[in-house]
Amino acid sequence: MKPGKDYIIFPLDVSSKEKALKYVTMLKDDIGLFKVGLELFVSEGPAVLKAIREITGAGIFLDLKLHDIPETMRRAFLAASEYRPEFVTVHCDQGEGILKEVALKNPGGTKILAVTLLTSLNSQNLSRLGYTDDYIKDLSRFVLLRARIAKEAGCHGVVCSGHEVSLIKKELPALIALTPGIRPVWSVVGKDDQKRIVTPADAVKGGADYIVVGRPIRDADDPKAAARRVAEEIESSLG
Ligand code: C5P
């Protein structure tokens, strides 16, 4: 069994390299991967990845959530894979064609994760966006459909909520499952935009290979202790 801390991905949801490196230095021994998302990557560019690597050997998850026409996706993915992150995310709204473009040209071993459905969206939001059929009444059907498309397209894994992870691992066990929307019972997150949340223990018991835990760690009085507490919860739930 891998150590509890290796399940944890900490998102560097900050705008500057200085702030990001403060968290990297603080948490490098207590989490498995650091996630660099749009805010930090757009603010600081690829240099921030090099700076993180100078501090830690922890993996980097480049969460760019690429979404464009196939040729642009392919070129953007190739550019991102030059930095050798462990994972890059793509959206799969346009069906398997677009993901094939990305998956086929993957020289560097970076794994492609497809976003199934953002955990900030629920059935009501999707209905307002014009989705109307049974798939939005039962979000797990919607997510499983997208996970199948991602698998057929050659993606290595999916980002999915803790509510769907066990279904995905049952139906598509070869896919890596990465689960955001994690809230330990003790976490104090103010105004929360995450809608389909689960605890770390429930996510890994459901089969999540990685969990993204941001604000419950970042907003804790002692972020390092909070990360350790999450890792312990994971280990005791699996052990
Ligand atoms: O734990 P917390 O809610 O603070 O985590 C926020 C992070 O989770 C953000 O970096 C966001 O991009 C990420 N996230 C994600 N996929 C989702 C929902 C959130 O990667 N479906």
Structural class assignment: alpha/beta
Cα separation of the termini: 9 Å
**Strand portion, in percent?**
15-25%
Please give the number of β-strands. Answer: 8
The coarse silhouette is: globular
Strand order of the largest sheet: 1-2-3-4-5-6-7-8
Number of domains in the coordinates?
A: 1
Q: In CATH, what is the homologous superfamily? A: Aldolase class I
Instruction: Supply the CATH architecture.
Output: Alpha-Beta Barrel
Which class in CATH terms? Alpha Beta
Give the overall average pLDDT: 91
Following the backbone from N to C, one meets helices and strands in this order, namely: EHEHHEHEHEHHHEHEHEHH
State the assembly state of the protein chains. single chain
CATH topology (fold) name: TIM Barrel
Largest sheet: 8 strands, parallel, barrel
